[in-house]
């Protein structure tokens, strides 16, 4: 774990931008995603490397609804006069294609799928092909999926983004991010941005994420099975007004996810009567933790519109975002059932 080496060695931590542990993590994640990976100190460091790496004056096409950190970064880059952002509903392919075809041509298409927290599903091959047709890079934030659910590079994505804090590490005890690049040219550019901006991850964080990835497939199988069952039960509960989960046959994204993904994920959003009912549910849960974040072995729930950026982007004030963990499904349902009772 030392960051200092004898002069002259090719293994210099600062020269190569990471340790042998970092490179082991990158090799493993690259193999899972089908590209060449780079570890970052956080998910936001990885996101910033891509968005802040476009030339000044560029146009970026991005989702109307997305992760709050990404949304705020896009807004700040636009406020500084560095970029122009064209926001579209990412699940509306026609609208995104229109944005890509406008002059001036965009430099970057930023895709989040499913969108956070409204669960919009992008038609990845259609949007990525259209981005390439106008000379834009296509980046996909696939944090909510993990490579166990979808591999965007298989559909031509130039970059895949992960907050490795979430499903990859899986135990809510790491702060780390990652990029996976389809080409050596993009990898070289992103590595330079990471190293120059000080975004290299620590050795301990990288080790813990790599260790967590050893159980990724098992964790995702269990969490997705739990989410599938809980979504069905929530959908039938009289206190729930709407469930957003692509695994439900009547969900707008069901056909697209079935066609493009290898699973429906372990994130559920659902709506209750009003803000008061949503806050009350968060206060009543016992096994499920009322907290931000997602993708760990424990289940978490929160009302996302309590954050100003989510509310401003249109998140309903009665929406609850539910990260389903790997606990016993009957225990989880009993906790939800009692919390939904007025």
Automatic annotation (TrEMBL):
Sequence positions bearing N6-(pyridoxal phosphate)lysine: 166
Query: Could you give a single Gene Ontology term from the biological process aspect?
Result: transsulfuration
Look up the record and name the cofactor or cofactors this protein needs: pyridoxal 5'-phosphate
Kindly give the PROSITE patterns that the UniProt entry links to this protein: CYS_MET_METAB_PP
Please provide an example of a Pfam family that matches this protein in its UniProt record.
Answer: Cys_Met_Meta_PP
| Similarity section | Belongs to the trans-sulfuration enzymes family.
Q: What is this protein called?
A: Cystathionine gamma-synthase
- Organism expressing this protein natively: Nakamurella antarctica
High-level lineage: Bacteria, Bacillati, Actinomycetota, Actinomycetes, Nakamurellales
